[in-house]
Amino acid sequence: MSGFLILSDSELAGLGITTAEVLSALENAIAAQVRGTVKVAPKSAVLPGDGRYVMTTLATGDAPDLTVVKSVMVSPRNPARGLPGVEGVVLVQDSETGQMRALMQAGWLTGVRTAGLSALAARRLADPAAETIAFVGTGAQARSHLAAFCDLFPLRRAVLLGRGAGNLERLAALARARGLEVEIASAPQAALAAADIVVSSVTLAYGMEPFLDARWLKPGAFAAITDAGVPWRAEGMAALAPLYIDDQAQEVDNPRPMVDPALVAGDLAALVTGTAPARAPANRAGFVFRGMAIGDFAIAAQALDRALSAGAGTVSDWASRPGEGPA
């Protein structure tokens, strides 16, 4: 293909990529990272101090021959402007030539990637017979997790805890459409104590007072903590045994650890490659993460391949290339 593809969130969602395909792509990419055929940089973040934060990821590989860069902005004032609270873009280049292959809106990819990473951990750490799932935070991440976890577990009930009425109603409607009974939790402890699986996706604010405690989870429960553990009390995290994070190498370089490193049993690569020890079924388990470049790489590569096969997106190109334009 000459030029590059431009793909919106709606076009990406319309590609029909299934949860099973997402998990397979993530597993293959993580295995490639372990082999050294995909290289990643630690996720970076900038907090301007007014509630916004900007995050970027970078990964480059030889198979597929792609470089993927994602930049995402979280702006709490966007909803009042009629805009999504999270907006961003994914740049895909040929890793040999540097030529642009695709420009993608980042919303769909980020939701699917994040839920996929949680699901990879849950498939190895959660009760396969789990029936009740609790969501603390009911926005876009909760919706993507609902879809993925309904595909993996025999869920019958969803317990919701969130601040925004619109998001609560939307998530409740989606859960009911999946055949789940819906309960609105009265308090954080009630939400956690009721669930076999907990997903926390609270909008990050590093000055917030933690209000969730892992000791409230029932024995055998699993928590997917997508918000870097910020709303969770540090003194309760030892109740999660085992406790996994997304990428130990990335965490070593981060000045703000998500959890006490002494509590960490391993990372997602250890779970995926089978080197992690088995968990005791009665133990609470957790997966805490801030996001990892390999996930964005995997889903961007998968989406580009599917879009090219389906003829989706808009083909564009630069007005001129080196050697073609005026001197």
From TrEMBL:
<dbReference type="Pfam" id="PF02423">
    <property type="entry name" value="OCD_Mu_crystall"/>
</dbReference>
<dbReference type="InterPro" id="IPR003462">
    <property type="entry name" value="ODC_Mu_crystall"/>
</dbReference>
<dbReference type="GO" id="GO:0005737">
    <property type="term" value="C:cytoplasm"/>
</dbReference>
<dbReference type="InterPro" id="IPR023401">
    <property type="entry name" value="ODC_N"/>
</dbReference>
<protein>
    <submittedName>
        <fullName>Ornithine cyclodeaminase</fullName>
    </submittedName>
</protein>
<dbReference type="InterPro" id="IPR036291">
    <property type="entry name" value="NAD(P)-bd_dom_sf"/>
</dbReference>
